[in-house]
Amino acid sequence: RDVAVTGVQTCALPIYPAAANLAKEMADVFATAFLSEEAERRPVLQSLALYNEFAELTPTGAKGDEVIARLTDRLTKLDLLDQAANLLERQLAATGDADAKLALGTRLAQLRFADGRFADAIQALDAASAKPKDLSPEVAKTRGELRARALAKLDRLDEALALAGDNVSLRLDLAWQAQKWPQAHAACKPALADRKSTRLNS
Asked: What's the half-sphere exposure (Cβ side, CA atoms, 13 Å) at 157?
């Protein structure tokens, strides 16, 4: 049974007593079309067209997220960043799970940043509902650094540096990339002071 055949049955679902079971079966067939070994051999643009035609069959939960992740990774490897980001954006809007929203929003922001769409990267970070206290230190660091870099690219260096806090390496990199030499020099000062102190004490 292929996706094209089962997709036709979608319109008839309301008249079936076992509609819920049929919907799950169809979603499983759809997922297999993207998660099987055969799916990896299918041209990625063909897979994208298949997904777009039958997107309503995307399973909910982890399996649906895996379908999106697999297809997104394949698109990203071909530098089709906008297409990959659009998939994530659609999935982000559809999910109500806070953890999934956080992961999708972070990945979407990374793709938007890589595609030079810095304002959209910040918007993707804002789309996740998790508060800072809910984030693991690693995730918080990743998202904070990404936001700071996006702000710097939008010529909002003061906000970016404030967000970087006492991360000397990040502060220096932000200022250097923006070619703001006074700020770059200021970012170096703590490291230079530590180096001088180490020399005096050795």
From this structure: 16
Give every CB contact of residue 47 below 8 A, 6+ residues apart in sequence.
34, 39, 71, 74
Taking the C-alpha atoms of residue 127 and residue 102, their distance in angstroms, rounded to an integer, is 8
Q: For residue 102, how far is the Cα from the chain centroid?
A: 9
pLDDT by residue (tens digit) across 145-181?
999 999 999 999 999 999 998 898 999 999 998 888 8
What residue type is assigned to position 183 of the chain?
A: Q
Average the pLDDT over each of 48-57, 107-116, 128-137, 191-200 and give the range with the smallest value: 191-200
| 81: pLDDT strictly greater than 80 | yes
DSSP string for the chain: --HHHHHHGGGGGGG-TTHHHHHHHHHHHHHHHHHSHHHHHS-HHHHHHHHHHTGGGPPSSHHHHHHHHHHHHHHHHTT-HHHHHHHHHHHHHH---HHHHHHHHHHHHHHHHHTT-HHHHHHHHHH----GGGS-HHHHHHHHHHHHHHHHHTT-HHHHHHHHTT-HHHHHHHHHHTT-HHHHHHHHHHHHHHHHHHHHH-
- Whether the predicted pLDDT of 87 surpasses 70: yes
Q: Under a CB-based contact definition with an 8 Å cutoff, are residues 58 and 67 in contact?
A: yes
Length of the chain equals 202
The C-alpha atoms of residue 88 and residue 71 are separated, in whole angstroms, by 10
Would you say 69 and 75 are in contact if contact means Cβ atoms under 8 Å apart?
no
